[in-house]
Design goal:
Largest sheet: 7 strands, mixed
Number of helices: 4
Number of domains: 2
CATH architecture of the largest domain: Alpha-Beta Complex
Structural class: alpha+beta
Oligomer: single chain
Radius of gyration: 20 Å
Order of helices and strands: EEEEHEEEHHHEE
CATH topology of the largest domain: Nucleoside Triphosphate Pyrophosphohydrolase
Shape: elongated
CATH superfamily of the largest domain: Nucleoside Triphosphate Pyrophosphohydrolase
Number of strands: 9
Protein backbone atom coordinates (compact mmCIF):
# COMPACT_ATOMS: atom_id res chain seq x y z
CA UNK A 1 0.00 0.00 0.00
CA UNK A 2 1.35 3.41 -1.01
CA UNK A 3 -0.10 6.10 1.21
CA UNK A 4 0.30 8.76 -1.46
CA UNK A 5 -1.74 6.82 -4.02
CA UNK A 6 -4.61 9.12 -5.02
CA UNK A 7 -6.99 6.15 -5.19
CA UNK A 8 -6.77 5.75 -1.41
CA UNK A 9 -7.85 9.31 -0.67
CA UNK A 10 -11.26 10.88 -0.02
CA UNK A 11 -12.93 7.77 1.37
CA UNK A 12 -14.90 7.24 4.53
CA UNK A 13 -17.14 4.81 6.41
CA UNK A 14 -20.80 5.11 7.33
CA UNK A 15 -22.18 3.02 10.22
CA UNK A 16 -25.92 2.51 9.69
CA UNK A 17 -28.37 0.68 11.97
CA UNK A 18 -31.90 -0.48 11.22
CA UNK A 19 -33.61 -0.50 14.61
CA UNK A 20 -36.83 -2.52 14.69
CA UNK A 21 -39.64 -2.77 17.19
CA UNK A 22 -43.12 -4.31 17.25
CA UNK A 23 -46.09 -2.34 18.60
CA UNK A 24 -49.44 -4.13 18.88
CA UNK A 25 -48.33 -6.68 16.31
CA UNK A 26 -47.08 -4.07 13.81
CA UNK A 27 -43.40 -4.22 12.83
CA UNK A 28 -41.81 -0.77 12.80
CA UNK A 29 -38.39 0.72 12.08
CA UNK A 30 -36.87 3.87 13.53
CA UNK A 31 -36.23 6.67 11.02
CA UNK A 32 -34.73 10.12 11.51
CA UNK A 33 -35.19 13.17 9.28
CA UNK A 34 -32.05 14.91 8.04
CA UNK A 35 -31.61 18.58 8.88
CA UNK A 36 -28.64 19.18 6.59
CA UNK A 37 -27.57 18.52 3.02
CA UNK A 38 -27.24 16.16 1.29
CA UNK A 39 -30.80 14.77 1.38
CA UNK A 40 -32.00 17.59 3.63
CA UNK A 41 -35.55 16.86 4.77
CA UNK A 42 -35.35 13.17 3.85
CA UNK A 43 -35.92 10.30 6.26
CA UNK A 44 -33.03 7.88 6.78
CA UNK A 45 -32.00 5.06 9.09
CA UNK A 46 -29.99 6.00 12.17
CA UNK A 47 -26.31 6.39 11.44
CA UNK A 48 -23.52 8.58 10.17
CA UNK A 49 -19.79 8.77 9.57
CA UNK A 50 -17.36 6.70 11.63
CA UNK A 51 -14.66 8.59 13.52
CA UNK A 52 -11.12 7.46 12.75
CA UNK A 53 -10.46 6.69 16.42
CA UNK A 54 -13.36 4.31 17.12
CA UNK A 55 -14.28 0.73 16.37
CA UNK A 56 -17.20 0.01 14.05
CA UNK A 57 -19.73 -1.05 16.68
CA UNK A 58 -18.75 1.78 19.01
CA UNK A 59 -19.32 4.24 16.17
CA UNK A 60 -22.70 2.73 15.32
CA UNK A 61 -23.86 2.97 18.93
CA UNK A 62 -22.59 6.55 19.22
CA UNK A 63 -24.58 7.48 16.12
CA UNK A 64 -27.69 5.77 17.50
CA UNK A 65 -27.37 7.78 20.70
CA UNK A 66 -26.64 11.08 18.95
CA UNK A 67 -29.53 10.70 16.49
CA UNK A 68 -32.17 9.14 18.77
CA UNK A 69 -31.04 9.15 22.39
CA UNK A 70 -31.26 5.35 22.57
CA UNK A 71 -28.68 3.60 24.72
CA UNK A 72 -28.32 0.02 25.96
CA UNK A 73 -29.16 -1.67 22.68
CA UNK A 74 -27.55 -4.80 21.26
CA UNK A 75 -26.74 -4.57 17.58
CA UNK A 76 -25.40 -7.06 15.05
CA UNK A 77 -23.50 -6.35 11.85
CA UNK A 78 -25.11 -7.97 8.81
CA UNK A 79 -23.78 -6.49 5.56
CA UNK A 80 -21.59 -3.88 3.86
CA UNK A 81 -22.80 -1.57 1.10
CA UNK A 82 -20.10 -0.18 -1.14
CA UNK A 83 -21.44 1.34 -4.34
CA UNK A 84 -19.04 4.06 -5.42
CA UNK A 85 -21.75 6.70 -5.74
CA UNK A 86 -23.89 5.83 -2.69
CA UNK A 87 -22.98 9.22 -1.15
CA UNK A 88 -22.77 12.45 -3.17
CA UNK A 89 -20.15 13.89 -0.80
CA UNK A 90 -17.33 11.36 -1.18
CA UNK A 91 -16.77 7.64 -1.40
CA UNK A 92 -18.45 6.20 1.70
CA UNK A 93 -18.69 2.49 2.44
CA UNK A 94 -21.63 1.64 4.70
CA UNK A 95 -21.33 -1.01 7.40
CA UNK A 96 -24.88 -1.97 8.31
CA UNK A 97 -26.23 -3.24 11.61
CA UNK A 98 -29.55 -4.47 12.89
CA UNK A 99 -31.04 -3.87 16.32
CA UNK A 100 -34.29 -4.89 18.03
CA UNK A 101 -35.73 -3.04 21.01
CA UNK A 102 -38.88 -2.75 23.09
CA UNK A 103 -39.98 0.76 22.12
CA UNK A 104 -42.08 1.12 25.28
CA UNK A 105 -38.93 1.31 27.40
CA UNK A 106 -37.19 4.06 25.43
CA UNK A 107 -37.96 7.69 24.74
CA UNK A 108 -36.52 8.83 21.45
CA UNK A 109 -35.15 12.32 20.90
CA UNK A 110 -37.19 14.06 18.22
CA UNK A 111 -34.59 16.66 17.20
CA UNK A 112 -30.80 16.81 17.35
CA UNK A 113 -28.05 18.93 15.80
CA UNK A 114 -28.28 16.93 12.58
CA UNK A 115 -31.89 15.73 12.57
CA UNK A 116 -35.24 17.52 12.69
CA UNK A 117 -37.43 14.56 13.66
CA UNK A 118 -37.43 10.88 14.61
CA UNK A 119 -40.27 8.36 14.63
CA UNK A 120 -41.24 4.70 14.32
CA UNK A 121 -42.63 3.78 10.89
CA UNK A 122 -44.56 0.61 9.99
CA UNK A 123 -42.45 -1.32 7.50
CA UNK A 124 -45.26 -1.23 4.93
CA UNK A 125 -45.53 2.58 5.16
CA UNK A 126 -41.95 3.71 4.63
CA UNK A 127 -41.44 7.13 2.99
CA UNK A 128 -38.74 7.67 0.37
CA UNK A 129 -35.35 7.41 2.08
CA UNK A 130 -32.14 9.31 1.45
CA UNK A 131 -28.88 7.75 0.28
CA UNK A 132 -29.30 4.03 -0.39
CA UNK A 133 -31.20 3.43 2.84
CA UNK A 134 -34.18 1.83 1.11
CA UNK A 135 -31.83 -0.93 -0.09
CA UNK A 136 -30.24 -1.22 3.35
CA UNK A 137 -33.66 -1.42 5.04
CA UNK A 138 -34.83 -4.11 2.63
CA UNK A 139 -31.77 -6.23 3.37
CA UNK A 140 -32.10 -5.57 7.10
CA UNK A 141 -35.68 -6.82 7.11
CA UNK A 142 -34.67 -9.99 5.30
CA UNK A 143 -31.95 -10.51 7.89
CA UNK A 144 -34.43 -9.94 10.73
CA UNK A 145 -36.75 -12.53 9.21
CA UNK A 146 -33.93 -15.07 9.17
CA UNK A 147 -32.96 -14.26 12.75
CA UNK A 148 -36.38 -14.67 14.36
CA UNK A 149 -36.71 -18.23 13.07
CA UNK A 150 -33.27 -19.35 14.24
CA UNK A 151 -32.46 -17.33 17.40
CA UNK A 152 -33.94 -15.76 20.51
CA UNK A 153 -33.70 -12.20 19.11
CA UNK A 154 -37.30 -11.51 20.16
CA UNK A 155 -36.21 -11.55 23.80
CA UNK A 156 -35.26 -7.90 23.24
CA UNK A 157 -38.87 -7.16 22.29
CA UNK A 158 -40.37 -9.18 25.13
CA UNK A 159 -38.06 -8.83 28.15
CA UNK A 160 -41.00 -9.52 30.44
CA UNK A 161 -44.28 -11.46 30.13
CA UNK A 162 -46.33 -11.98 26.99
CA UNK A 163 -49.26 -14.04 25.79
CA UNK A 164 -48.87 -16.59 23.02
CA UNK A 165 -51.37 -14.72 20.77
CA UNK A 166 -49.22 -11.60 21.21
CA UNK A 167 -45.99 -13.29 20.20
CA UNK A 168 -47.73 -15.13 17.36
CA UNK A 169 -48.86 -11.80 15.94
CA UNK A 170 -45.27 -10.57 16.18
CA UNK A 171 -43.92 -13.54 14.21
CA UNK A 172 -46.65 -13.07 11.64
CA UNK A 173 -45.95 -9.34 11.31
CA UNK A 174 -42.21 -9.77 10.76
CA UNK A 175 -42.46 -12.84 8.54
CA UNK A 176 -45.56 -11.61 6.68
CA UNK A 177 -47.03 -15.05 7.16
CA UNK A 178 -50.06 -16.46 8.96
CA UNK A 179 -49.88 -19.41 11.37
CA UNK A 180 -52.63 -21.69 12.58
CA UNK A 181 -53.25 -20.74 16.21
CA UNK A 182 -53.20 -24.27 17.62
CA UNK A 183 -50.17 -25.38 15.59
CA UNK A 184 -48.24 -22.24 16.54
CA UNK A 185 -48.90 -22.75 20.23
CA UNK A 186 -47.96 -26.41 20.09
CA UNK A 187 -44.76 -25.71 18.16
CA UNK A 188 -43.63 -22.88 20.41
CA UNK A 189 -44.20 -24.84 23.60
CA UNK A 190 -42.39 -27.90 22.21
CA UNK A 191 -39.20 -25.91 21.54
CA UNK A 192 -38.49 -25.25 25.21
CA UNK A 193 -37.96 -21.52 24.52
CA UNK A 194 -40.52 -20.13 26.93
CA UNK A 195 -41.88 -20.88 30.38
CA UNK A 196 -45.22 -20.36 32.12
CA UNK A 197 -45.20 -17.50 34.67
CA UNK A 198 -48.37 -18.78 36.35
CA UNK A 199 -49.97 -15.40 35.63
CA UNK A 200 -52.66 -14.28 33.22
CA UNK A 201 -53.06 -11.19 31.07
CA UNK A 202 -55.06 -9.81 28.16
CA UNK A 203 -54.04 -9.08 24.59
CA UNK A 204 -56.17 -6.88 22.33
CA UNK A 205 -59.03 -6.86 24.85
CA UNK A 206 -59.69 -10.59 24.67
CA UNK A 207 -60.29 -12.94 27.56
CA UNK A 208 -57.40 -13.53 30.00
CA UNK A 209 -54.65 -15.80 28.69
CA UNK A 210 -51.59 -17.37 30.26
CA UNK A 211 -48.50 -15.19 30.46
CA UNK A 212 -45.15 -16.63 29.42
CA UNK A 213 -41.58 -15.37 29.34
CA UNK A 214 -38.44 -16.38 27.46
CA UNK A 215 -36.11 -18.62 29.39
CA UNK A 216 -32.88 -17.03 30.57
CA UNK A 217 -30.74 -19.39 28.53
CA UNK A 218 -31.91 -20.53 25.13
CA UNK A 219 -30.07 -22.81 22.76
CA UNK A 220 -30.14 -21.47 19.19
CA UNK A 221 -32.50 -23.58 17.11
CA UNK A 222 -34.80 -23.27 14.14
CA UNK A 223 -38.18 -22.06 15.38
CA UNK A 224 -40.41 -22.03 12.30
Amino acid sequence: MKKNNALYKNQGIHVITAIFTVEFGITKVLLVKRKNEPYKGDWILTGGALYNNEDLEDGAKREIFEKSGITDISIEQFKAFGKVDRSPVMRMVAIAYIGVIDSSRVKIIRETNNTSNADWFPIDKIPGLGFDHEEILKEALLYLQSKIVTTDILKALFPNEFTIPEIQKTYEAILNKKFDRRNFRKKLLSLDLIEDTNKTGKFEGKKPAKLYKFKDTIESKKVF
